[in-house]
Description:
Layout: E1 15-19, H1 48-60, E2 65-69, H2 79-87, E3 94-99, H3 104-114, E4 118-122, H4 128-135, H5 140-153, E5 158-164, H6 173-182, E6 185-191, H7 199-205, H8 209-214, H9 217-220, E7 223-224, E8 235-238, E9 245-249, E10 262-265, E11 270-272, E12 281-282, H10 290-300, H11 310-314, H12 328-331
Parallel strand pairs: 1-2, 1-10, 2-3, 3-4, 4-5, 5-6, 6-9
Antiparallel strand pairs: 7-8, 8-9, 10-11, 11-12
Amino acid sequence: METRLVDRYGRVHDYLRISVTDRCNLRCLYCMPAEGMEFMSQNKLLTDDEIEEVVRAAAKLGVRKIRLTGGEPTVRPGLPQLIKRIASIPGIIDVALTTNGLLLGNMAAHLHAAGLQRVNISIDSLQPERFKQMTRGGDLSKVLTAIEKCVRIGFSPIKLNVVLVRGYNEDEFDDFLRLTVDQPLTVRFIEYMPIGGRQADWKQNYLSLEERLYASELGRSAVPIAKPEHGGPAEYYRLPNALGSFGLIHPVSEHFCDTCNRLRLTADGFLKPCLYWSDEFQIRRYIGDEHALMDALIRSLDAKPLNHEMARELSGQQLSHEPTTRTMSQIGG
């Protein structure tokens, strides 16, 4: 019988998100502090050989989808070569990337040729000065150019990730919806999550997506559509006659833990069964012994709870576990 990554609740895990670096060329307000971040030394990061070995072991346990994240993955040297190695592993059928897009324009063609199939691009504002404020220094024009290049190259789907933050960008909801009318883009709105000790400002700036959708006349004209392949946890909609679509990802107000199919590997070699909780397992020690590595992947799921408790945190209730203190950039999202 085939051994698969199945947790005690019967959830089959076929998706591994890999952080290839904790470094980033931005300091987005919901991801990391403006100052004081201490990044890992190079020798703490998993090497290309180590990442490939983990993916090979995971593929033998049924993992089929890989997403590379950061920090910002495009700042890691040799990223196209790493993607080529991962894409060639038997059993891996989908390789994707989450990026802030700043360096993507010059790299997109190389990444596509190496075997990258899909891109998620973070873009939290369409207003240059506001974008610069939310990212603490980002250049919106570079991101928009990268999106255009990805469309021309043929990445599909191209997803734009928008974290809605109250007091910052909720008034741009309709502007993002309009992007989907004439372009084959998928805009995904994501609720602000309390990851990495950001509870104080999170409660103040959290915004329910359902609340925002029904406050939008344009949004109310949208119709629900079936979840596309590689749709992830979002609920999808389309405006009348639009080429693209949009989705709502609401991990706080309506968690989707019952369908979670992912594990996360941090840049320093720890497996995290759940983004929210502090549980993590060092697996670097097993690299070089494929059997032990596969066993460690299987055992890591024993600690995966039924669900996170972000909604309980929002309402001030006591939590059953200890939330992670790692920032989103240190986990990989």
